Amino acid sequence: MSAVTSSLSKRQEKDLLSLFSHARLHLLYKASIHGFTAAAFHGRCDRQGPTIIVAYNAAGFVFGAYTSKDYAQSGQAVSDGTAFLYSISAERNKPLRVGSISGKHAFTDGGPGPNFGALVFLHEDKPAVQSNPGDCFNFQEAEMHGNDLALTEFEVYRVEGLGDLLEKPWRNIQWTSERKQQLMTSIQNYLPEIKAVNQARVLLVGPVGAGKSSFFNSINSAFRGNMTCQAITGTARTSVTTQYRAYTIKTGRRGGTLPLILCDTMGLEENADSGLNVDDIVSIFKGHMKDRYQFSSCSSILEDSPGYQKHVTLNDTIHCLAYVIDTCKVSLLSQKMLDKLTAIRKRANQLGIPQILLMTKVDEACPLVAKDLKNVYRSVYIQEKARQLSDSLGIPLSYVLPVKNYSEELELDQNTDILLFMVLEQMLNYADSYFENQITDDQDGSNGPELYRSIDPRQVVSQRDEPKIV
Ligand SMILES: Nc1nc2c(ncn2[C@@H]2O[C@H](COP(=O)(O)OP(=O)(O)OP(=O)(O)O)[C@@H](O)[C@H]2O)c(=O)[nH]1
Ligand SMILES: [Mg+2]
């Protein structure tokens, strides 16, 4: 999913949001990228629920129209008591808001560009607006758009209500230093159930920019005790991560390594021939991809590729798969992306790999969570997004974990660490389920009872005991 970014400045976005009581904006359509045509507009904005049009002109006006009703090209005149036109300009310290003239409809739901009577956007499939004040809405043209009817940009956002806080959280978290310590200790003391396996291997997979590399950096920072940035992170159209990386994590500067390897990948994109491909993911599942393999969108790793590892053991295979999804983009996941994720899920199921879903950027998604991370399981919005993800990917809600990565902070934070460690603890629990399945699969005892750690959970592991994969 390549990133199409908003042209709104922080100040303009704040002004726009002030027109609603408690909302988030999701960019659906940007004419400079998708085309200044009615067809491009309808292709992205029809049947999206409440939306706001944001038109920009060279005179510095940001103006447009809100409706809570769907665009559906029905040909009908649509009434909407909540619809309004608005204008934001640097000269005004509050947005201008204009409701419809009493008894008049809000817009004509036709095939051409959005037609609010007084403002007709994408007029004749051009970057232009037609202005007819008095037709359904009344305003002074100089105040609305400064008489500049040529558009420099045209965007449409879905407006999502954020809801409030639940009285009771949907998961109980102890936000205490004792809990943080307890989680840290249990993660550090974890030992995979199979003796010959030294570390649980967890694979991070998800769309471009979802926060996969940041998750590794955050865990690494939390265990080292200071901010680290070993994995390169950032925002770009295509994946910032282009190499497969299997990261080990140290506890403290000179401490030992955690019994966990986090494997970072290139981001997924909608199209079949861009971003990380499903065949490469399957090779990673089976342990065939070497650390630092350079991904290529157009071809997958082959047995004779330099980064291909032929002989693999249980130490090399993936023991838990974590999907990483940006909470802000949940409702914008395209069918193509969902299909890709479903194909990955199918292959992981076939190989018996347990799966978990991380919902990142909860701070960006909900201002109540940004204000206080302890609201994460009380935010109606976050709960709704978790349910939505669980439904669309067919993953039980209990496998969905909201998380906040460190992104711009200079100091560690106890609550952020607790959420991060809870995710890690679940990953290790799920890796155990994978190991348990290996044990069940081997009940004929052909590998010998000494294979499993349950006999002596603290026994030191020898590299020479590695069981072979069949
Ligand atoms: N506010 C906030 N920003 C985040 C969070 N996680 C990641 N980011 C930011 O999102 C951007 C993308 O993060 P990355 O970790 O590079 O994402 P990625 O999934 O590795 O992306 P690719 O490697 O390009 O596929 C960066 O600017 C991060 O700082 C989060 O939980 N909260
Ligand atoms: Mg990355």
Automatic annotation (TrEMBL):
This is TLDc domain-containing protein. GO terms for molecular function: GTP binding. GO terms for biological process: immune response. Belongs to the IFI44 family. InterPro entries: GTP-bd, P-loop_NTPase, TLDc_dom. Residues 2-160 form the TLDc domain.
